[in-house]
Specification:
Blueprint (H helix, E strand, L loop, with lengths): L8 H10 L9 E5 L7 E7 L7 E5 L17 H15 L7 E5 L4 E5 L5 E2 H6 L7 H15 L7 H10 L3 H10 L18 H8 L2 H16 L3 E3 L8 E6 L2 E6 L6 E3 L1 H21 L3 H25 L10 H28 L5 H4 L4 H17 L10 H15 L1
Antiparallel strand pairs: 1-2, 2-3, 3-5, 4-5, 6-8, 7-10, 8-9
Helix pairs in contact: 2-4, 4-9, 4-10, 9-10, 9-11, 9-13, 9-14, 10-14, 11-13, 13-14
The chain binds adenosine-5'-triphosphate (ATP) and magnesium ion.
Length: 401
């Protein structure tokens, strides 16, 4: 493999003209906007507002934040572009449009979203969720139905599986989400207020078994195409012409895997945002956040029900659908639980909590919720009941006060 040429901001405009994505005589500005850890993202904004802005994402052959001493295959940019194109087939409203893919450079160009804000930032700044959870639920529902045994023929699924292998990123998830936070791994860190609770969690045999079950599910349950990293840093939100706009970005972890992974990661981060609001004394906003868990779940189920009459396998009956959705809910709670633990005890914490004057009390509630949910998912009822989860979150906060 030849080394890809790493783009620098000064080269991006000429690069886009060279790819015939901008007119040769256009002028404008380029900004590096990537605040992520892994890759580089640049936006190019033409002076002429009639020409649409563009965003270029490039994966260097290492982890961007750490540099050449931390090599990582740049293939991830191509995996991401391919996933975005598939997502756009089934959920075009919530997916940024990919305009060009450049395999030798491990780069792709998409529509510019710089008028939108990353959801985590918006929530930290006091925004509400509005329609966001419903839009995310719909995207996950539409993409997973279309790529499941109900929506895709065995031939189409075999091709999808072959096209979606993502072993490196799966390893990252196994380590940083489903591994390290449950051990005393080197890069973990936590607030001292969590010492005792964390020791309890890490020595709880029930936690070990549930974690093992999730690890096995993650590696073996090829249900549908999933985003793989669907937290509130992978959603951008804003308003255009008075209408809410929601876009899901950054599916570089995409793979064929358990559907509950996407719903669980998203919902855990909604819970974290709610706990932040409670910690700030804004119970009303916290309650609104947790109530949106139901918007997400209901839209997810609605998308499955919408696709259901057109299912490719007529021997899948309504009883199976019910059982399947229950299973997805159960998995969702499990993946939400590990995400809650990871964001207060793993390597990559949530700025929602870290930027509170004292992250201790809120982090303790998040850890307690993660532990409870992981070992006793029936605590939210034996049937999918997103309102019971919302209730559990708000009462956990109150109980700690
Ligand atoms: N199409 C776009 N238009 C404008 N800005 C964008 C676009 N895509 C991404 N960004 C900005 O760049 C940032 C980084 O993007 P992204 O999360 O895709 O990169 P990443 O390096 O994979 O991040 P991470 O390390 O979190 O995985 C986003 O948080 C957002 O602010
Ligand atoms: Mg990323």
């Amino acid at each position: 493999m030849t080394e890809p040429v790493v783009l620098e901001p000064a080269e991006v405009w000429a690069y886009l003209v060279g790819r015939e994505l901008l007119p040769a005589d256009a002028s404008g500005v380029v900004r590096e906007v990537g605040d992520g850890n892994m890759n580089r993202v640049f936006v190019a904004i033409p002076d002429d507002s009639a020409i649409a802005g563009l965003a270029v994402k490039q994966a260097p052959p290492w982890i961007q934040k750490l540099g050449p001493s931390a090599p990582m295959s740049p293939e991830r940019a191509l995996i991401e572009a391919r996933a975005l194109r598939r997502f756009a087939e089934y959920a075009p409203r919530q997916t940024p449009r990919v305009l060009d893919v450049d395999p030798p450079r491990f780069a792709f160009t998409m529509e510019d979203l710089s008028d939108l804000t990353v959801l985590r930032t918006a929530l930290n700044d006091g925004a509400g969720l509005g329609r966001t959870s419903a839009e995310v639920g719909e995207l996950v529902g539409r993409v997973t139905f279309a790529t499941s045994v109900a929506g895709a023929t065995p031939q189409a699924r075999a091709a999808l599986l072959a096209d979606s292998v993502n072993p490196l990123l799966a390893e990252v998830t196994l380590q940083y989400l489903l591994g390290d936070p449950f051990t005393t791994a080197e890069h973990n860190h936590h607030h001292p207020a969590l010492n005792t609770a964390l020791q309890k969690l890490r020595s709880d045999p029930a936690v070990r078994t549930e974690l093992a079950t999730l690890r096995a599910d993650f590696g073996g349950n090829a249900q549908a195409l999933v985003h793989g990293d669907l937290h509130s840093g992978s959603v951008m939100v804003g308003v255009r012409k008075g209408e809410p706009v929601v876009r899901v970005i950054d599916p570089e972890f995409a793979m064929v895997g358990p559907i509950g992974l996407d719903l669980g990661l998203y919902l855990a981060n909604v819970v974290i945002a709610a706990v932040r609001a409670y910690a700030q004394g804004d119970a009303e906003r916290g309650n609104d956040h947790v109530l949106s868990i139901a918007d997400c779940w209901d839209s997810f189920c609605a998308a499955w029900r919408e696709g259901w009459p057109g299912r490719v396998d007529p021997l899948l009956d309504d009883g199976w659908l019910l059982r399947h959705l229950r299973g997805v809910w159960h998995d969702t709670l499990g993946y939400a639980a590990v995400e809650l633990v990871r964001r207060v005890a793993g390597y990559s914490h949530a700025s929602d909590l870290e930027t509170l004057p004292d992250p201790g009390p809120a982090s303790a509630v998040v850890l307690g919720l993660g532990h409870k949910l992981l070992v006793d998912r029936e605590i939210c009822g034996s049937r999918p009941d997103p309102r019971a989860l919302a209730h559990l979150v708000s009462t956990s906060w109150e109980a700690q006060q």
